[in-house]
Amino acid sequence: MPHDHHDHHHDGLSASGHPFRSDNDEALTYWQRMEIAARELLIEKGIVTPAEVAAQIDAMDARSPANGAAVVARAWTDPAFKDRLLANGSDACREMGFDVGALHLVVVENTEAVHNLIVCTLCSCYPRTLLGLPPDWYKTRAYRSRAVIEPRKVLREFGLDLPDHVTVRVHDSTADMRYLVLPARPAGTDGMDEAALAALVTRDSMIGTGLPRQP
Amino acid sequence: MDRVSAAFYPVGMSDTDGRRWHDMGGRDAGPVPQDEHDFALWEKRVDALMMLCSDKGFFTVDGLRRVLEDMGEEAFETMTYYERWMAAVNQNLIEQGVYSLEELGTKMEEIAARGDSYGEAQDV
């Protein structure tokens, strides 16, 4: 039998430090069988090709928070771009080659006085083009329920304790409208170029559950 | 809930406030679980099938959401995210006549006979 073996890290963690979810070597589940069946039927009927499925996954793997970080770093270094980004996030990201499709991307700016947080209370809507697939916690009942009613408490669980004078704004995404947080540029980064700045921008800082790294 | 919206919902309409289960914003819940996992190949394939079928006009994200929401709260608690997506993609494809339940059942039996793991069950 052909067997799709990948390199296994025997400490149970992937290169990105996350545990592997039971995968190709675990007992075949009902839903995995359904995935194989649906895919094969779609291929047999000429609706999709194996190459299209593979290309879709390659594109998915290529979308990571590095995309969003590049946008943020550009906004930090180019005031005209930042204005365009805040005016129309979708168009400004397209300038950089990140096509969010028909979605409206709304970019919300963190300042000394305002901290923004994004959530999708109804489902799992997320700016995938810029951040990749949403993390598990973003899709949990706890995050979806509480982010809109006790954001400061939720942020403290993420290690972010905001002073009372900072206004917290929570943005609830929809199927057609996605948000991205433009974090505030950290102090002490004056001499840094765009690439070095992008390395400071974390995924969570663009969701609002974190802040950029300090230089 | 503020006074205006409280008055809007008829008392006794449900044990909550008239919202469906998936409309979770503002409800009580426990701490946010912080663990994350890297997506498995089969999960990425479910995502890819959703995107491709949607790009090709078979159904939209609204069709996906409708099934996810109708699956109810128990499915939310007992199935993983991409298991629920798989169920929703499948339901939409059957409704659209892309394949029949019988074709699906036959194919799934055939796959079960190929092997005991996801890797072994691939037709390659």
User: Roughly what is the average pLDDT of chain A, rounded to an integer?
Assistant: 91
CATH topology of the largest domain in chain A: Nitrile Hydratase, Chain A
The string of secondary-structure elements of chain B, in order, is: HHHHH
Query: DSSP strand (E) fraction of chain A?
Result: 5-15%
Low-pLDDT segments of chain B = 1-14
Give me the CATH superfamily of the largest domain in chain A: Nitrile hydratase alpha /Thiocyanate hydrolase gamma
The sequence of SSEs of chain A as H and E is: HHHHHEEHHHEEHH
Radius of gyration of chain A: 20 Å
Helix content of chain A: 25-40%
The CATH architecture of the largest domain in chain A would be Alpha-Beta Complex
Outline of chain A? globular
Distinct helical segment count of chain B: 5
Rounded to the nearest angstrom, the radius of gyration of chain B is: 19 Å
The major beta sheet of chain A can be summarized as: 2 strands, parallel
Helix/strand-derived class of chain A? alpha/beta
Structural class of chain B: mainly alpha
Overall form of chain B: globular
Give start-end ranges of low-pLDDT stretches of chain A.
Answer: 1-10
Total helices of chain A: the number is 10
Amino-to-carboxy terminus distance of chain A: 51 Å
What is the tally of beta strands of chain A?
4
Could you characterize the architecture of this molecule?
The complex is a heterodimer of chains A (215) and B (124). Chain A folds into two domains: 30-62, no CATH class; 65-207, Nitrile Hydratase, Chain A (Alpha-Beta Complex), CATH 3.90.330. Helices cover 39% and strands 11% of the residues of chain A. Chain A contains ten helices and four strands, in the order αααααββαααββαα. In chain A, strands 1-4 form a two-stranded parallel ribbon. A two-stranded parallel sheet of chain A has the order 2-3. In chain A, α3 packs across α4 (79-87) and α4 crosses α5. The termini of chain A are far apart. Chain B has a domain at 39-124: Orthogonal Bundle (Cyclin A, domain 1), CATH 1.10.472. In chain B, 53% of the residues lie in helices and 0% in strands. Chain B is built from five helices and no strands. Chain B has helices spanning 3-8, 41-55, 61-78, 81-95, 101-112. In chain B, α2 (41-55) packs parallel to α4 (81-95) and α3 (61-78) packs across α4. The radius of gyration of chain B is 19 Å and the shape is globular. Classes of the chains: A alpha/beta (215), B mainly alpha (124). At the A-B interface, α1, α2 and α7 of A face α2, α3, α4 and α5 of B.
